[in-house]
TrEMBL record:
This is Sensor protein KdpD transmembrane domain-containing protein. It comes from the Bacteria. The lineage of its organism: Bacteria, Bacillati, Chloroflexota, Ktedonobacteria, Ktedonobacterales. It comes from Dictyobacter formicarum. Keywords: ATP-binding, Kinase, Membrane, Nucleotide-binding, Phosphoprotein, Transferase, Transmembrane, Transmembrane helix, Two-component regulatory system. The chain crosses the membrane at residues 21-41, 47-64, 69-87, 99-121. It is found in: Membrane. It is a multi-pass membrane protein. Residues 26-130 form the Sensor protein KdpD transmembrane domain.
Amino acid sequence: MQTIERIPQIETGIKNKWQYYVFDALIAVTGSLIITGMIYFSHLYPRISDIVIIHLIWIMAMAIWRSRYAAIIAAIATFLSFDYFLVPPLFTFTIDDPIQWVALFVFLFTAIITSWLVGAVRKSAEEARQNAHELRILYELIRVCNSTNNFDEQLDIIALSTLRIFSSLGVTECVLLSPDQTGQIQVRADAPICIDEFLPTPEEIRHVTQVYKSGVHAVIKDVNVPHSLVHYIPLKSSSHVFCVLYLRVLNGVPWLEDEVVMASALSNAYQPAEFFRTFLDQISSLIERSLLREKLAS
């Protein structure tokens, strides 16, 4: 158990989309207004014509600290506030001098392009860090599974590891099921560890049997357990299904669904569904290898 606890958990990266956008917008607008207010009350413009560079630094900071979305909002807020409070005639969105229009639009264009590039660099760095974290998860999983040659122990490790890794994403129960020599569905491993063993209901056995035969992922809403979905996931190599992975996931955490868009690219939100597919391929390979070793030993 201690070795399993060394396996890192997946980082959720799931944010409430609306709250995330609203919070970023508030920070961006508030910061831009504060900087513009400081320039206005200090009478730095037009004495220092390039004072708008301070705003550009703020926009770049938003791209690095928050997101490209926040930086773009900051650029637009700066454009409007600078026009309203500092460019004659004051307290209007009209400009007498056409050159000022050109200067402001050049600033807006430069700020948006700069924030987009800085945000792209930030996103690349975040993706590299996340990839390293995922590789460590897979490495630790393989290392723990290779610590024993007992097939049942390896299945227990896979079940416990799956629950640990994805518990932060709403996974509350993980079971591995497969048919025995007589074709009866049996539980090979389950997590979390409880006094009472997991006993599938006749309805659950029917779903497992269907998924085992069809090899198609099925999602069933469990009416007996509120706010939860049960995923029946075939673990297979090519067209041969080794066993079925039973995952109970809290309803409202739709990271397993390919068609669900988590958060837009502007928020740099991490999407764990792709890693989960890689994880399934890895545990399928581990089970296939263990089954082959078991057959050779017999």
